[in-house]
Amino acid sequence: MPFSWFFYSSKLSKHYEGDKEVAFVAIQTVFEGYSSNTIQAAEEIIKRYKLSMPVGHSGINGKRSKFMLRYKSGGTPWTVIIDKTGIVRFNDFHAKVENIIQYMDMLKKEL
Question: Is the sign of the CA dihedral 23, 79, 10, 40 positive or negative?
């Protein structure tokens, strides 16, 4: 998980802090560097950056991430927005924070 991802997620988390309708989950998706992108490495990142959101790990022992396969995701940061009904509403690479906020606010009004 590169540093730029933390800045990106931090801005979103702060914007929606206390909002019961919005939840964030970070998933370390591994498609290379299996020996360094481990569950233990993800745990260290959680501690180092004092992350309050749940952090998952997908992809282990040379097996490509199931998350990446299911959502056809690529590099980091990849953003997937899933609405309250479980429908994927956004799935793309390097979305701008301002655009995500605008889109999520629109979705909150919709549902």
Answer: positive
Per-residue pLDDT band for 102 (boundaries 50, 70, 90) equals very high
- What does 72-104 look like in DSSP terms, one character per residue? T--SSSEEEEE-TTS-EEEEEES--HHHHHHHH
Domain 3-7+24-110 of CATH type 3.40.30.10: yes
Residue-wise pLDDT for 22-59, tens only, equals 988 888 887 777 888 888 888 888 888 777 778 877 88
b/e for 20-45, b at 16 or more Cβ within 10 A?
eebeeebbbbbbeeeeebbeebbeeb
Tell which wins on pLDDT, 56 or 102. 102
How is the chain split into domains, by residue range? 3-7+24-110
Q: Under a CB-based contact definition with an 8 Å cutoff, are residues 56 and 62 in contact?
A: no
